[in-house]
């Protein structure tokens, strides 16, 4: 379902980026990069509105003709960006939220791993296999 | 409640192990500092991981004061099963957190005995605070001081660049 998944650090460099290897992957990298601006806009807009209850899930960032891009930010300002195929109409908000929740849980596990230095690229195989399960799922 | 005791014992052993090699003929103040630095950096890494895991769904940490309150309430309860007793600030980046009966010191003495040895047992916790603050986006310097066991205070100075 997900065509590309990216984990971006607080300083806006990618910690992990993986896409379905069928097409020009650079296009996905570029989409993730442009979506960072939208994420920053959403974060700062929420801050100014003085909302008491802020959500981690940012929702649909922007749609293009083939793909939709969703965002999620954690308390430590680490951003998750997911690019999803538009041709799948049955993909509901709940499912996207649950996918982000799984990503967040796996990222927390990576952080707690003593062999991982915060700020390095994520090389954990467990994280890889969780992302693969999210990408391969085709309904 | 068994996990609290496990952490206390582990922490005591960590400190004891680092200081067990001080039987060298010429320890010097450098050695002491190395050990304190090792403890503090261990605490820092643990704090970084905790800072990611604890505030899972709460994104209400908008300001610095909110983050400090989170430290005093949620972090302290998670690690030591009690809340911090008082938090004071000068609103210019310095915060003083006071704990009148710090669990890692409470078993040692209550009074002035062992006050010189107390800093060794506070280094890990200083690192813990610094690590959690750094994951939540605040660069800081944390020091601890003890006037009389088991009360201690942690001073957090936020470094704004």
Which properties best describe this structure?
heterodimer; A: 139 residues; alpha+beta; B: 161 residues; Muramoyl-pentapeptide Carboxypeptidase, domain 2; four-stranded antiparallel beta sheet; 4 helices; 4 strands; 50% helix
Please identify the structural class of chain A as seen in this structure: alpha+beta
Which fold does the CATH topology of chain A refer to?
Beta-Lactamase
CATH architecture of chain A: 2-Layer Sandwich
Estimated share of beta-strand residues of chain B: 15-25%
Structural description of this entry:
The complex is a heterodimer of chains A (139) and B (161). Chain A is α+β, with helices and mostly antiparallel strands and 139 residues long. Chain A has helices at residues 25-48, 93-112, 125-136, and strands at residues 2-8, 14-19, 57-63, 67-73, 79-85. Chain A has one domain: Beta-Lactamase. Helices cover 40% and strands 24% of the residues of chain A. In chain A, strands 2-1-5-4-3 form a five-stranded antiparallel beta sheet. In chain A, strand 1 (2-8) and strand 2 (14-19) form a beta hairpin. In chain A, helix 2 packs antiparallel against helix 3. The radius of gyration of chain A is 15 Å and the shape is globular. Chain B is of the alpha+beta class. Chain B has a four-stranded antiparallel beta sheet, with helices on one face. The chains are: A alpha+beta (139), B alpha+beta (161).
Question: Summary?
Answer:
Helices cover 40% and strands 24% of the residues of chain A.
How are the SSEs placed, and which strands pair?
The complex is a heterodimer of chains A (139) and B (161).
Chain A: E1 2-8, E2 14-19, H1 25-48, E3 57-63, E4 67-73, E5 79-85, H2 93-112, H3 125-136
Chain B: H1 2-20, H2 28-53, H3 64-80, E1 86-89, E2 94-99, H4 118-135, E3 140-148, E4 151-158
Antiparallel strand pairs in B: 1-2, 2-4, 3-4
Helix pairs in contact in B: 2-4
């Amino acid at each position: 379902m997900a065509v590309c998944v990216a984990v971006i650090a607080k300083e806006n460099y990618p910690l992990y980026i993986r896409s379905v290897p069928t097409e020009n992957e650079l296009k996905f990298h570029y989409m993730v990069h442009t979506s960072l601006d939208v994420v920053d806009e959403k974060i700062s807009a929420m801050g100014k509105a003085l909302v008491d209850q802020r959500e981690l899930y940012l929702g649909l960032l922007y749609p293009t003709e083939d793909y939709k891009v969703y965002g999620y930010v954690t308390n430590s300002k680490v951003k998750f960006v997911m690019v999803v195929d538009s041709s799948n109409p049955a993909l509901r908000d709940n499912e996207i939220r649950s996918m982000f929740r799984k990503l967040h849980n796996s990222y927390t596990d990576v952080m707690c791993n003593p062999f991982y230095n915060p700020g390095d690229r994520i090389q954990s195989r467990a994280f890889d296999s969780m992302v693969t399960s999210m990408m391969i799922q085709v309904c | 409640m068994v996990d609290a005791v496990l952490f206390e014992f582990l922490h005591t052993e960590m400190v004891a192990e680092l200081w067990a090699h001080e039987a060298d003929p010429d320890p010097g103040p450098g050695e002491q500092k190395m050990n304190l630095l090792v403890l503090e950096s261990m605490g820092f890494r643990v704090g970084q991981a905790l800072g990611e895991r604890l505030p899972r769904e709460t994104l209400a940490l908008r300001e610095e004061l909110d983050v400090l309150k989170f430290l005093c309430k949620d972090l302290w309860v998670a690690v030591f099963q009690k809340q911090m007793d008082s938090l004071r600030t000068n609103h210019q980046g310095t915060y003083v957190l006071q704990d009148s009966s710090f669990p890692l010191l409470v078993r040692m003495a209550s009074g002035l005995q062992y006050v010189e040895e107390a800093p060794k047992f506070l280094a890990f916790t200083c690192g813990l605070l610094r690590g959690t603050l750094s994951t939540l986006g605040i660069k800081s310097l944390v020091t601890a001081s003890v006037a009389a066991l088991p009360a201690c205070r942690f001073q957090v100075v936020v470094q704004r660049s």
